[in-house]
Amino acid sequence: MVICMVGTGYVGLVVGACLAGSGNQVMCVDTDAAKIEMLNQGLLPIYEPGLQEIVAHNRQADRLHFSTDVAAAVRASQLVFIGVGTPPTEDGSADLQHVVAVAHTIGQNLNGYKVIVTKSTVPVGTGDRIRQTIASYTDQPFAVVSNPEFLKEGDAVQDFLKPDRIIIGTDDPRARSIMEELYAPFQRTSDRILFVDLRSAEMTKYAANAMLATRISFMNDIAWLCEAVGADVTAVRRGLGSDPRIGSKFLFPGVGFGGSCFPKDLRALVRTGREHDRPMAILEAVIQVNERQKNLLVDKLRRHFGDSLAGLTVAVWGLAFKPGTDDLREAPAVHTIQSLNDLGVRVRAADPVATERARALFGPQVACFVDEYQALDGADALLVMTEWSAYRQPDFPRMKAIMAQAVILDGRNIYSPSKMRELGFTYYAVGRPPVVPDKP
């Protein structure tokens, strides 16, 4: 098939490259000329494990192309995917200006039956708006399909190649047949496609992210109470997750969720509820708990060092909102570092892949390193914000030797309290009793 992918971000680039890998001719288009130039030079604007190899292979095979000419790509394609951003507005709703702009371009260039596939996360009813916008320009036949993405940053390539499920919202038999053919290579062992109506597909994306975010905030609330009553949330999590009705995924407490999806989608769903006089009380509480968690480690620092933190040097390990990505959007580490800067703390930060983005974001206010031990030099405390694999079994004696004070605040509960006690660290985690070594 000949496919046009509008948008070359985390979704569009992964989907476009993977579809090219199954033999399709894919033109990824974007109005950002600098990004397209970078891609044509073989450079990626994002970090995603495995993506560089897939893009390079399909460019070499002449199946994957990059261009700024959206109109020409629309005219040449059988399927047009909309994968542009839908950032939040000030009132929490999704900003659909880029989606609507693409719909106008499609309508102006429709030259025969095409399937218009929405990959962007959009509020319920957006598919109808896209259909109306395109139809205002043309009498050509077309179908609008909702095909929400369920790609985890850091594992997006494998998520697309081996999907748990493929949600397709359409009431057009011809579009259904085309989408079945398109996804056939990705479900050879079982049928993972779920066909639903357009609005239900749009809602499913929001509902899925809202459920996962709710589990995280629930565990963070339990962890908060564990600290007050002297329980260990790690033991509680294991007991809870062993119940087959509940399961163990997304039950890890920490410093809150971030990224481009959960915060934005929750706010958009709450906004939709208000617009339809259906307050989303549970989701509003989920957001409230997550906001509280963002301040957790700074509050713990204050309890340890006193209210005034000015003059301290604090190391931060992990800047991306999760391992496997360089995405800093709504990352808990960003909020924490900004709070520390406001309190007069000198911050030295490390991340395996997000360092350049962090330098651009923070400027000279924050010293950023790729090497985690450089960030520790002279630090009064270490804050672990992202659970990168390299941070899980570090050289603790080396850490203790180069830090000014042996204090660790573990925002992801990746270290053993008993080992911290044995090594002589003061250790604070999330929902676990603190470790304060006896003074000699």
Explain what you see.
Helix 9 crosses helix 11. This protein folds into three domains: 2-196, 3-Layer(aba) Sandwich (Rossmann fold); 205-292, N-(1-d-carboxylethyl)-l-norvaline Dehydrogenase, domain 2 (Orthogonal Bundle), CATH 1.10.1040.10; 295-428, 3-Layer(aba) Sandwich (Rossmann fold). It is elongated. It starts with a strand and ends in a 12-residue tail after the last strand. It has helices at 10-21, 33-40, 51-60, 70-76, 97-109, 126-135, 156-161, 173-183, 198-229, 233-241, 262-275, 281-294, 296-305, 332-342, 355-362, 372-376, 396-402, 417-423, and strands spanning 2-6, 25-29, 64-67, 79-82, 114-118, 142-146, 166-169, 193-196, 313-317, 346-350, 366-369, 381-384, 407-410, 426-428. The protein has 18 helices and 14 strands. By secondary structure, the chain is an alpha/beta fold. Helix content is 44%, strand content 14%. The mean pLDDT is 95. The strands form three sheets. It has a six-stranded parallel β-sheet with strand order 3-2-1-4-5-6, sandwiched between helices.
Give me the secondary-structure topology.
Blueprint: E1 2-6, H1 10-21, E2 25-29, H2 33-40, H3 51-60, E3 64-67, H4 70-76, E4 79-82, H5 97-109, E5 114-118, H6 126-135, E6 142-146, H7 156-161, E7 166-169, H8 173-183, E8 193-196, H9 198-229, H10 233-241, H11 262-275, H12 281-294, H13 296-305, E9 313-317, H14 332-342, E10 346-350, H15 355-362, E11 366-369, H16 372-376, E12 381-384, H17 396-402, E13 407-410, H18 417-423, E14 426-428
Helix pairs in contact: 1-3, 4-5, 5-6, 9-11, 9-12, 11-12
